[in-house]
Amino acid sequence: MRILGIETSCDETAAAVVxxxxxxxxxxxxxxxxIHARYGGVVPEVASRQHLLTIxxxxxxAMTGFSWQDIDGxxxxxxxxxxxxxxVGVNVAKAIALARKLPFAGVNHLEAHxxxxxxxxxxxxxxxxxxxxxxxxxxxGGHSDLVMMKGHGRFEKLGRTRxxxxxxxxxxxxxxxxxxxxxxxxxxxxxxxGSPYLSLPRAWLKDSYDFSFSGLKTALWHLVHxxxxxxxDAAASFxxxxxxxxxxxxxxxARQLQAEQISLSGGVAANRVLREQLLANSPLPVLVPPPxxxxxxxxxxxxxxxxxFRAGKTNGYDLDVVPSLSLD
Length: 328
Ligand code: KG4
Ligand code: ZN
Fold this sequence. Notes:
Elements: E1 2-7, E2 12-19, E3 23-31, H1 33-37, H2 44-62, E4 73-79, H3 83-100, E5 104-108, H4 109-115, E6 134-139, E7 144-151, E8 154-159, H5 166-176, H6 183-191, H7 214-226, H8 231-256, E9 261-265, H9 272-281, E10 286-287, H10 291-294, H11 299-310
Helix pairs in contact: 2-3, 4-11, 5-6, 5-7, 5-8, 6-8, 7-8, 8-9
The chain binds 5'-O-[(R)-(carboxyoxy)(hydroxy)phosphoryl]adenosine and zinc ion (ZN).
5'-O-[(R)-(carboxyoxy)(hydroxy)phosphoryl]adenosine binds at residues 10, 140-142, 167, 170-171, 182-185, 188, 266-268, 270-271, 295-296.
C-alpha cells in the first residue's frame, strides 16, 4: 500500500511517499527556517503563506516518477499545530482526494512522530520491531509528552510539560546565550566544544511523570548575567541538564510500567547527547529515528496513515484542523 503523506503543521512544508508504513520512496522537506530566523521564532501568518507557495511544488517533487494510480491513499496532519498552517495541508489533501478519488486520513502529528521509529531509514537497514507496550517520549518544539503506546492508535498519556516544552526550552536558552534559531541545533553545536561542569537545577517532579524546564531556563539566565562563563560551557551544561531529566524519568517510567521497549521522537530527539544518554542507560531496547526523521517530515505522516488505512479509519471532507489536538 502506497501512501502520500502531507505535513504542514508548523514551519516545514513536507510531502512523502511511503510503502506499507515503512519503506520511504520519496521524502521532500522544504524548511522555512531561514525565513523565520530573522524574527527569532515562527511567525504564524508568514508560515501559512509560505506553505501556500510551496506545497504544490513539494508534492510534485515527492510524486516524481509516479502517477496517481500508484497511490492508494493520502494522509495529512490535522493537529496539533498552527491553525493557518494546518489548513493548507488539510485542504490540499482534500482537493487531491476529491480530484483523484482517493481515500484520505487525518493524522495526529505527535502520533506521526512516534511512527518515524518504524520507517526504514536506508534501503539496507532493517525495520525496527514494533513491540507493545512501548513507552514513547515525544520531545518537540511544542510538546514533551511521555505516553504509553499499547497498540496501534492506543495511547495513555502519562506526563507532559508543565511549562516550556523541551524544544521550546532549547530555543529560549539559545536566545539567552545569543545563539541562533532554532536553538536546539545551535546549542548542540556550541556545546560540542564546551564542558558540562556548570551546576544547573533539574526539576525531578517526583511522583509525577510531568516535566518542567522553566526553572532551568531562569537559572541559565542568572548564570549568564553573572558573567564569567563561556557560551560553550553554558550550552553543554544546559543540554546535559535537559537530557538527564528526560533520560532518567523515561527509563524510570518504563521500568515502573513494565514497557517492552522505549521510543524517542520529535525534533529534540535529534540531539546527540540525549540519544546517547538514553541508549547507554536504558535496560530496555531503545528506538531512535535518524536525526533527519526526528524533525518534522511527511514520511512519518504517511507511515502513520498506513496504519489508519489498514484499520479502515478514513476521514470525510468535513475533517477540520484541531490546533490543540493531544494524544489520548
Ligand atoms: O518536531 P519538530 O521539528 O517540530 C515540532 O513539532 O515542534 O521540533 C522542533 C524543535 C525545536 O524546538 C528545535 O530547537 C528542536 O526541535 N531541535 C533540537 C535539535 N534539533 C531540533 N533540540 C535539541 N537538539 C537538536 N539537535
Ligand atoms: Zn513535530
